[in-house]
Amino acid sequence: MQQDLRSVEVDAESVIRSITPALDLTRHKGQAGKIAVIGGCREYTGAPYFAAISALKIGADLSHVFCTKDAAPVIKSYSPELIVHPVLEESYSVREEDKKFISSKVLAEVDKWMERFDCLVIGPGLGRDPFLLDCVSEIIRHARQTNVPIVIDGDGLFLVTNNIDLVSGYALAVLTPNVNEYKRLVEKVLSSEVNDADATQQVLSLAKKIGGVTILKKGKSDLISDGDTVKSVSIYGSPRRCGGQGDILSGSVAVFLSWARQHIKAADPNSNLSCKNPAVLGCIAGSAMMRKAASVAFSHKKRSTITGDIIEFLGKSLEDICPAT
Amino acid sequence: MQQDLRSVEVDAESVIRSITPALDLTRHKGQAGKIAVIGGCREYTGAPYFAAISALKIGADLSHVFCTKDAAPVIKSYSPELIVHPVLEESYSVREEDKKFISSKVLAEVDKWMERFDCLVIGPGLGRDPFLLDCVSEIIRHARQTNVPIVIDGDGLFLVTNNIDLVSGYALAVLTPNVNEYKRLVEKVLSSEVNDADATQQVLSLAKKIGGVTILKKGKSDLISDGDTVKSVSIYGSPRRCGGQGDILSGSVAVFLSWARQHIKAADPNSNLSCKNPAVLGCIAGSAMMRKAASVAFSHKKRSTITGDIIEFLGKSLEDICPAT
């Protein structure tokens, strides 16, 4: 059964307006969201920074990064606004006989903070070191046990695609694959090829097969499904494809997912949201926000638009849609 | 006896105008204030930077940071304006048998500078390493012996709450607790619960019980007491609660406290200040300055306001209240 894309297009701006919390002087630090990014290694430092700073620019109160010891000073130096924990380890710095001990130490460091976080973003700049990925698998298991939502992107998707049980059946998990990551996911989970002619049906089947996790399939239109419903977001967008935009998206989805969860818990009787899955709502809002900021940045910077330019327009883009009073 | 908050609201802008020194071409480097921040460890580097740069942006001439060896290169990289001393040590880098020696070395490094400072800010990004906190306890004792004012925030409050003798009876000490830090302080010192219905009386009792130190209780209104008087500052303010704002406040209070002390020493016969406690005056001015800068930043950046944005508006906010001629 083929479904017309137009039929699943959602009013994303109205979702943003519904879930974004009102601000007032009685609020205290942390209430607007505490986000942590798990990523950053010897090779990659930009991606976790982009994800973590985007969370703050959208309105989270605190943004942490858990990365390797090599990556920490660099990520710290990008911005004093982030809290950067140098706790992850890669194989090259760990002897075989120490692995068990180091792994439990890494876990303990992250666990100290776990319950305070409203959402984890797992994967930006994580790299593919086997020892590090083993530790991250454990972090994912602990997040599930604590009911902390997780947004998985980049090398986190590499990990999860090869170990789908890590997220399978966890309704608070979001996967945000690009074209290539989606292809691998479909091949691995559905044992089939990507079918662009029936994209909505396929993303629905994929999300259902992974037990109701939410998939945000990035593309010309972003497609979002939790196995129950499919939504598409096609507004705005930019033709510029500089690296790092996926990191903005993952950080944004994390904040909106947290806000959607608060909104649903508060059970506002005036809420006109038909969808009650915070993961889906977070993806809709994050997708629209990213697409709008990218479009505004492109109108200013054209071909020279880089990821930092887009981040600078997150605040204005949100303000245009949902003014803070 | 319950006191109406309005009855203790102070004209903070007039305090700022009274204590801010006039500038003229005959002045030399250092006269407008030399501030030092004690803080910054492997985990935290943003907080001491925010406190130290805020002191400069308000008008101090020199701003130092004393931090651990790991934190120093990162804090230096945030700004060439700061003088960053890599002198503190955490347990992990010190062998048991070396502790006494290292501790006396740390003390000697700070002592070399102590008499030149007009105020210390103790706590931003200090962390909670026991060896490091022991060294900082000694730094506090030396500051008292030298009559150097101290503003204590963040992990410095954790230290002092558990060792109240460190500051008890020191009139040049300021504590700047947020909601949670205030709760711990009240429980520890007054052996009671926080009483919001009679907040002015409680902060008065607390300050008196700690022997006349000045408390700046941060909240929707900031409450300030030295055990003798209570003042509240409610003007301006912002609903944004991003982490780091407390660091701006502590750096600002340090500068204004130094200025108030100079002003009182000069015994200007035209001074119309009814309060003669420089710690209280510094808190009033610092609170109003922070609240105004936060409010101006929020009017520009709305939900995407981050701490760095607020710091950028410190100068304009002070200029609006008290123009440099």
From TrEMBL, chains A, B:
Keyword NAD: yes
EC numbers: 4.2.1.93
Catalytic activity: (6S)-NADHX + ATP = ADP + phosphate + NADH + H(+); (6S)-NADPHX + ATP = ADP + phosphate + NADPH + H(+)
Cofactor dependency: Mg(2+)
Keyword Cell inner membrane: no
Enzyme class (EC, first level): lyase
YjeF C-terminal domain ranges (all copies): 12-321
UniProt cross-references to Pfam families, sorted A to Z: Carb_kinase (PF01256)
UniProt binding sites for ATP: 218-222, 237-246
InterPro entries: CARKD, Ribokinase-like
Keywords per UniProt: ATP-binding, Lyase, NAD, NADP, Nucleotide-binding, Phosphoprotein
Superkingdom, taxonomy of origin: Eukaryota
CDD domains in alphabetical order: YXKO-related
Residues reported in the UniProt entry to bind (6S)-NADPHX: 125, 178-184, 247
Family in the record: Belongs to the NnrD/CARKD family.
NCBIfam families according to UniProt: yjeF_cterm
The protein's role, per its UniProt record: Catalyzes the dehydration of the S-form of NAD(P)HX at the expense of ATP, which is converted to ADP. Together with NAD(P)HX epimerase, which catalyzes the epimerization of the S- and R-forms, the enzyme allows the repair of both epimers of NAD(P)HX, a damaged form of NAD(P)H that is a result of enzymatic or heat-dependent hydration.
Name of this protein: ATP-dependent (S)-NAD(P)H-hydrate dehydratase
Native organism taxonomy: Eukaryota, Viridiplantae, Streptophyta, Embryophyta, Tracheophyta
